[in-house]
# Entry
Amino acid sequence: MAAPRDYYEVLGISRSATQEEIRKAHRALVRKLHPDVNSAPDAAAKFAEVQEAYDVLSSEEKRTQYDRFGHAGVGAAAAQGHAGAEGPFGGGSGSWHVDVDPSAFSEVFQEFFARGGAGGEARGSAGAGRRGASPFGGSARRGSAARGEDVELPIEVDFMSAALGGTRVVHLPDDDGGSSAIDVRIPAGIANGERLRLRGKGRPGKRGGEPGDVLLAVSILPHPWFRREGLDILLDVPISVAEASLGTAAMGTSVEVPLLRGSATLKVPAGTSSGQKLRLKGKGVVPARGGAAGDFLAVTQIVAPRSLEPDEEAAMRALGERLGNPRAETPWGRTLGKS
# Structure
């Protein structure tokens, strides 16, 4: 039987090597000789030799014994403390424990996956003959496909596109610091804060896994005159005192208002108050996902005249005296009237 090689020679280091140099040498050899990345027939034997050398030289106590007595000194220590050992990867409760640097194994696995080794038979060290066995004991699914991460991005959508539907050009960032333009369909009726999902446009998957998605967080820009409550569209409509007072009863007052599409004529009832809502059924947002359409609501805003001719002012005063104080009919107005 051939004598074991010098441990320093196995790791390719000098006898004065520091612990950091020992760790670096071990890491490099693990990446080179681990049976999961090296298919040579003698890879497992060489790897075991490296592990044995590292176990001794990485321990100050074992290294001192080895420097003084060689393999005989280490063997005596092993015989005293590890009777029945079966080598660095042997079984049984008396197995020789090897102090392994986990980060080195992590790098081996990454390289193993990169070479397409996922799903193959585990070779060499722990778990020989078991599919997907982990060298740290137990089974593990190595190299299974992993879905890419989702990416969330903000997107601003103009009011009309959000209400009626449309398209929006979105620039998706890539890993190289650039971006790619893509046309995104905006469904009619989308609400502020909703998310649009672009499937397969997120981070790439790992080991052949499907890519993630891009989630676009929608922020709807305000409109110059429309505003929205759910699927209803609201518009402030100024009307004069005469239009509010006389209404359709005497003069057939009507006002034309813009809609999301086209326009419509509204009848203003006699006695309309400021803030009253005149409704056009079904003239609001028609959702792309189906369901009932919203309504259009004209919110009246009575505009008082800025100037009056003397006779108009006199007539207005006479009308005001005849109509009386409208605040007197409110609960708080009645309270004030008693004080």
Q: What stands out?
A: Confidence is low (pLDDT under 50) at residues 79-99, 118-141. The longest strand covers residues 232-240.
